[in-house]
Specification:
CATH topology of the largest domain: Rossmann fold
Number of helices: 17
CATH class of the largest domain: Alpha Beta
Number of domains: 3
Helix content: 40-55%
Bound molecules: adenosine-5'-triphosphate, magnesium ion
Distance between the termini: 111 Å
CATH architecture of the largest domain: 3-Layer(aba) Sandwich
Length: 491
Amino acid sequence: MIQDGKIYLGTSTKPEYLELRFANRHGLITGATGTGKTVSLQVLAEGFSDAGVPVFAADIKGDLSGIAAVGEPKDFIKKRNELIGLDVYENRAYPTILWDVFGEEGHPVRATVLDMGPLLLSRLLELNEVQEGVLNIAFRIASDEKLPIVDLKDLRALINNISERSKELTTTYGNVAASSVGAIQRRLLVLEEQGADMFFGEPALDISDLMRIAPDGRGVVNLMTADKLMQKPRLYSTFLLWLLTKLWQMLPEVGDMAKPKLVFFFDEAHLLFDEAPKALMERIEQVARLIRSKGVGVYFITQNPLDVPDTVSSQLGNRVQHALRAFTPKEQKAIKAAAGTFRANPKLDTEAVIKELKTGEALVSMLENKGEPSIVQRTMMRPPEGRIGPLSAEERRGVIEYSPVFGKYEDAVDRETAHEMLAKRTEEAAAATPSPGSNWSDVIFGSGTSSSGRKTQGVGTMVAKELQRSVSRTVATMIKNVIMKSIGLKR
Ligand SMILES: Nc1ncnc2c1ncn2[C@@H]1O[C@H](COP(=O)(O)OP(=O)(O)OP(=O)(O)O)[C@@H](O)[C@H]1O
Ligand SMILES: [Mg+2]
């Protein structure tokens, strides 16, 4: 429900709203498990969609997918609506596109290795600084030698290639230590075994497909299935960070707008920050800071507000804090910290309230007026209009097949890239020198065609031709002599 550029969130002593003009100033949804984070996310996502703003969200447990189905008029929802005084309420489905890195529960999402870049890839491969240096060299060589690195096969071939040429490369590019190459190759294999090779390839995701508006004017809700992806937290967090970086690079500068162009929800956000090396932390901070002016709002969802480092946290203006438990000293510390981030309400003991909040109830503070946070309010959140809970497998199939991008990404394509190009180079080099292990008849008569299907004339072929020529010369002389003898002429 959109009123005067605001999304209605729920009711405290008054209705609480998120102002669309401040939606690009990012946000944070926190709370212990089962307290209502996913439903709050759904409420926000529906609000943005209604306002004509497309949304991208990771669907960790699959329970956000219900947004694509008509909600059910259950008693607890009716009661909640009465309590908060919401009389304009309609159960309805939201226009949704489902995505899945593994291509099973949604359209496949792919990126090229080149697009991912050495920084994110190093994080994904858990490389140390020296190894990252080698990866950087690989990317530079790929660019200098015009070798497209699309999938992991390409990267492996390239790394092999630079390891073979390490001596020649050292002067121009720097040291390519064999131990680093070995480490990268091993990590690449592990990554492939984890199924990440599904993610690298073409057709790569076209960012404009995430920014669709449905025919009825609502923003499309893009959900990325993440339950399987969550078993590979590195891939999950790197993927989302890649997507953010890509959005930031591709979208034009727009400054402050009446509403955002896209809103991005990053669930289980702690995974992004866990053990993140300095370079990566800087990238996250930078992207969060700068993507605002591209009209993109980023909302992090995590259990503990302390999961988000201060430098990022200070950029998150719109906040929904669900209940936190206070069993351990660490949890008590989190409550204190969370309470401290709010603009105090003299009528509320924020710290005490955080512990008391019921399911679907939250402390809410949104940016208002000139962009300052509103006084924190204890808010009963509104129910969403789509279904609370997951889609069935059959419903999911329906959403996928009905989608406007169905067929665009389903099949991978494998064009000639670094892997094939380097293989060709090796073959050509091999064809130019007979290898000692080659079959003798090959050397003599030549195989004629290389395994890449091209005609070659190796040394073997040349030797054979010369041999044939001299044999023919000898035979011809013998025949000539016989003929001359037989007709009585001497040579
Ligand atoms: N705003 C709301 N309106 C109606 N029901 C709600 C609301 N918020 C939460 N609930 C109820 O609480 C249940 C749990 O909420 P939710 O799934 O959002 O918790 P969560 O914090 O995401 O939990 P987890 O950490 O386990 O993912 C919902 O299934 C729903 O029944
Ligand atoms: Mg949840």
